[in-house]
User: Which sequence fits this backbone?
């Protein structure tokens, strides 16, 4: 499988790789002991897994440009606009749901392309370009929706995202897991995935090896924006509508999960499976605390704290090998 | 007046290698003292000992202004002793103004609430006037010409130094055009005029002849000569620098070369430090390009590869002709060029990734089946390749950073030779490589030529060039000024021509 599974790895590596999954299990055990009757129910887990699929897809979107060494802060803006587009086109303009979804995904690709072109041709940091783009998109969303929540999206989408279940868990969860698998395959088993990694780890080396660095970086931002648009579609399906501020609260958790995920499974690398575990680790922590009646501000404490810890840990994990970015 | 610097019997050993031994050096007050020697002769080790960066072996003595100073020096102690260093990179911050750079130390330590800009500005003017430097204090350093930056760095260095201090200029002229060096010399003389001793480290004999009062030559970590500059001819100094020891191995003769076909040809290349270069690399030859640092040879491979933008020039590989202005590394790779750069951690290898990733970087398409990458096959293939190049340990899954410098370089050779280039370009191929691996890399280059590739080796290591090259081109000020073939290729000859001791025209005839 992955190059992470190499012979001659020390026990310390193994500990590092499974630390997060183990911490997750401990967290579940902890809440289970503290609050068995409420927390340890099938319904709790079904809800957690199903309702947070949007966050998982958004986080997967982030790790594509992160692998190539770029940040995409516009994913939350893309998510919100995408959900809003689906709602407006479907509810107010009467488009069939599939056409609205396609339009939203195309919007994602276009936004990603714009991000990438500005970044590469003007030589501006991705952080700044996508910060501007994200804010711009939020403005467009508010304008287009008149700052109002739009509901009443076709039941078909809602059915296939959240209502229909398999083993008690909404289909959205399975979509997200399938996406994990696809992304893992792309990153590990295709030339594109390897080039993303080369560019992220050694831009100058990649350039001098004939890799078209600019194209790879633009492609990564298109990928993240398209996936963020898909997350927006799932959001619309999950809530049956769109509100103009839906994505803003998801950006920080997504970054926290992406960095936390990079400490696990393949330490030092942004990877889909580590990301999935990180998302559900964070969600479990918050759900558990909320079920115990803790105030809602704990959510910010938990996500913010996790992001700081995750970044510190991932730096440690990478610290075993020299950082050679830029 | 006592001498500003007296060194006696200084030695420094790095893991059994004597980088310095029995070094005596005196810099008098108010003199400009040239420090000469080839790369690796010990000049920089000496400077690093003075800066407190290296600990010398016990036994050496150091006197500053007649005062005995105990060795080793602590890092930063040189400041209190009145020593100042200006290195080649100058240590300026381009995005700040002249004034801010001048008071960088004060800015970073200033504790008072408001910065006394006005006082600093007038202080800066007096300082610059004292040394004959004319710079606008509000100008950004990025807007200064290279020579102005060098002057600023010098003024900054001596600003807080006592008048009986020591200023070490470590190759400050490398990137300067001829006229500008004169400005630098004037300021250097003004500094010396105040009683400061100047240690001027340079490769360039012409400059040393013009500027210095006395000089000292290092070779293989020893002082091999020196004295008053005026009493020595350039030829005598070159002989001291180069020495006479090494014999070159057999080379292909000019006739043999003429018979072989051209693998790649560059015409009228201009860009970076290259002013104008036309040359051809033949199939089966190792062509060396060299010169002093800053002479342009080091930019040539990057220019051909499209990594340094070209202002003009054409490149022919086989039947394909490319305008160098539109060259880029992706195209260069497709044309059959390969480049193993000198700066391995930055440009050559991705140290945080595995050896497999590094070695297979350009071979990905050949391992693709449908949408899948055959990773098992990649691993098997790369293991084979690594054993061909004798990379140790032969484990493609190890991170590249865990390999020694020599083995990393072999990985890079393997990476590029797999692509079967028409022309293989290497820049300082044995930099940071141990002696054993050095031999192996030479034999890799040799076998590449045996398979019909043309090899272009850009290097400032004259001994190495004499060992491996069939032909050597020597650059001065961005142009090719001499060509050596066959038996003419010796370390001494290359060095002499690099330092321009003899009229270059006699060599071009052959």
Assistant:
């Amino acid at each position: 499988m992955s190059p992470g599974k190499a012979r001659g790895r020390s026990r310390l590596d193994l500990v590092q790789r499974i630390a997060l999954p183990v911490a997750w299990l401990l967290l579940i055990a902890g809440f289970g002991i503290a609050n068995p009757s409420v927390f340890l129910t099938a319904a709790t887990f079904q809800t957690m897994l199903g309702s947070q699929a949007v966050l998982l897809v958004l986080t997967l979107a982030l790790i594509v440009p992160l692998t190539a060494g770029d940040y995409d802060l516009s994913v939350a803006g893309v998510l919100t606009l995408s959900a809003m587009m689906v709602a407006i086109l479907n509810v107010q303009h009467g488009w069939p749901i599939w056409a609205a979804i396609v339009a939203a995904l195309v919007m994602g690709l276009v936004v990603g392309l714009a991000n990438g072109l500005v970044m590469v041709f003007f030589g501006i940091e991705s952080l700044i370009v996508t910060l501007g783009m994200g804010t711009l998109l939020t403005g467009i969303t508010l304008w287009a929706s008149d700052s109002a929540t739009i509901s009443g999206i076709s039941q078909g989408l809602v059915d296939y995202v959240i209502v229909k279940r398999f083993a008690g868990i909404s289909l959205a969860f399975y979509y997200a897991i399938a996406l994990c698998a696809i992304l893992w395959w792309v990153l590990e088993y295709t030339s594109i995935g390897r080039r993303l990694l080369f560019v992220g780890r050694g831009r100058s080396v990649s350039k001098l090896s004939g890799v078209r660095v600019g194209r790879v970086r633009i492609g990564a931002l298109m990928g993240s924006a398209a996936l963020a648009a898909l997350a927006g579609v799932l959001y619309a399906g999950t809530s049956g509508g769109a509100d103009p501020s839906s994505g803003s609260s998801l950006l920080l958790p997504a970054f926290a999960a992406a960095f936390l995920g990079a400490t696990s499974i393949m330490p030092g690398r942004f990877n889909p499976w580590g990301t999935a575990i990180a998302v559900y680790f964070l969600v479990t922590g918050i759900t558990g605390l909320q079920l115990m009646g803790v105030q809602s501000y704990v959510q910010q404490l938990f996500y913010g704290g996790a992001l700081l810890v995750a970044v510190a840990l991932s730096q440690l994990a990478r610290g075993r090998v020299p950082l050679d970015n830029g | 007046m006592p001498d500003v610097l007296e060194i006696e019997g200084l030695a420094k050993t790095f893991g059994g290698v004597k980088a310095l031994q029995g070094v005596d050096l005196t810099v008098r007050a108010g003199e400009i003292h040239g420090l000469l020697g080839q790369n690796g002769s010990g000049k920089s080790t000496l400077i690093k000992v003075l800066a407190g960066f290296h600990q010398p072996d016990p036994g050496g003595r150091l006197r500053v202004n007649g005062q005995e100073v105990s060795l080793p020096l602590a890092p930063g102690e040189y400041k209190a002793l009145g020593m100042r260093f200006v290195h080649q990179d100058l240590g300026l911050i381009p995005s700040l103004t002249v004034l801010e750079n001048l008071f960088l130390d004060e800015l970073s330590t200033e504790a008072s609430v408001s910065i006394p800009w006005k006082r600093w500005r007038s202080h800066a003017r007096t300082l610059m006037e004292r040394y004959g430097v004319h710079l606008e204090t509000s100008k950004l350093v990025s807007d200064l010409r290279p020579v102005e930056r060098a002057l600023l760095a010098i003024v900054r260095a001596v600003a807080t130094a006592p008048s009986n201090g020591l200023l070490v200029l470590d190759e400050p002229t490398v990137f300067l055009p001829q006229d500008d060096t004169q400005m630098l010399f004037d300021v250097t003389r003004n500094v010396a005029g105040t009683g400061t001793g100047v240690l001027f480290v340079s490769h360039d004999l012409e400059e040393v002849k013009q500027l210095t009062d006395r000089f000292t030559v290092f070779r293989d970590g020893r002082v091999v000569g020196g004295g008053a500059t005026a009493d020595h001819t350039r030829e005598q100094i070159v002989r001291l620098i180069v020495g006479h020891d090494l014999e070159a191995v057999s080379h292909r003769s000019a006739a043999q070369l003429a018979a072989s076909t051209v693998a790649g040809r560059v015409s009228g290349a201009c860009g970076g430090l290259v002013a104008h270069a036309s040359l051809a690399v033949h199939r089966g030859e190792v062509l060396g390009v060299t010169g002093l640092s800053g002479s342009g040879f080091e930019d040539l491979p990057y220019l051909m590869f499209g990594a340094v933008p070209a202002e003009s020039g054409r490149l022919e590989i086989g039947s394909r002709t490319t305008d160098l202005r539109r060259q880029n590394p992706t195209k260069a790779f497709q044309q059959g060029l390969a480049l193993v750069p000198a700066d391995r951690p930055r440009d050559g290898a991705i140290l945080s990734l595995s050896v497999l990733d590094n070695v297979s970087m350009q071979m990905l398409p050949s391992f693709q089946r449908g949408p899948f990458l055959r990773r098992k096959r990649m691993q098997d293939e790369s293991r084979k390749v690594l054993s061909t190049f004798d990379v140790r340990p032969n484990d493609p899954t190890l991170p590249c950073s865990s390999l020694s410098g020599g083995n990393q370089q072999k990985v890079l050779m393997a990476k590029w030779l797999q692509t079967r280039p028409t022309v293989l370009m290497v820049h300082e191929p044995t930099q940071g490589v141990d002696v054993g691996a050095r031999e192996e890399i030479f034999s890799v280059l040799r076998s590449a030529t045996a398979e019909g590739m043309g090899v272009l080796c850009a290097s400032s290591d004259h001994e190495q060039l004499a060992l491996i090259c069939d032909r050597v081109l020597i650059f001065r000020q961005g142009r090719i000024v001499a060509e050596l073939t066959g038996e003419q290729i010796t370390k001494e000859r290359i060095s002499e021509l690099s330092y321009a001791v003899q009229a270059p025209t006699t060599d071009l005839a052959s």
Remarks:
- Confidence is low (pLDDT under 50) at residues 1-9, 320-326 of chain A.
